[in-house]
Specification:
Elements lengths: L3 H14 L4 H7 L4 H8 L7 H11 L15 H14 L2 H15 L1
Helix pairs in contact: 2-3
Organism: Candidatus Limenecus avicola
InterPro entries: Cro/C1-type_HTH, Lambda_DNA-bd_dom_sf, TransReg_Diox_bact_type
Protein name: Helix-turn-helix transcriptional regulator
Length: 105
């Protein structure tokens, strides 16, 4: 089992580090840009075949996508937290706030 979210972040991180746009990567692997976007945002799970194509296009070993250690930036972490907070009910948000407040103090 693998984590689609972490794989998507890895794909995005590597793609950006090589200055390759989503459009260009999509072209390189014969996919549409929307599919690359969905993979990077963990809205869909890549097949092994797709990962092999992406790894080859990015010139990296496919194992890199499965490494558990990710190099998330502060901005990525904050964006992910905000996205999840926006999905919470008011009651859950208040409880979450209380838990974080007690943890921080």
């Amino acid at each position: 089992m693998y984590n689609s979210k972490l794989i998507g972040l890895k794909i995005k991180e590597i793609r950006k580090s090589k200055n390759i746009s989503q459009e260009k990567l999509a072209e390189m692997v014969s996919m549409n840009t929307r599919s690359i976007l969905r993979l990077e945002n963990a809205q869909s799970s890549p097949t092994l075949e797709t990962l092999e194509k992406i790894a080859q296009a990015l010139n990296v070993d496919i194992k890199l996508f499965f490494e558990t250690e990710t190099l998330e930036t502060r901005e990525q972490i904050i964006n992910d937290i905000n996205k999840n907070l926006n999905k919470m009910s008011d009651k859950d948000l208040k409880n979450f706030y209380k838990a974080v407040y007690h943890f921080m103090n």
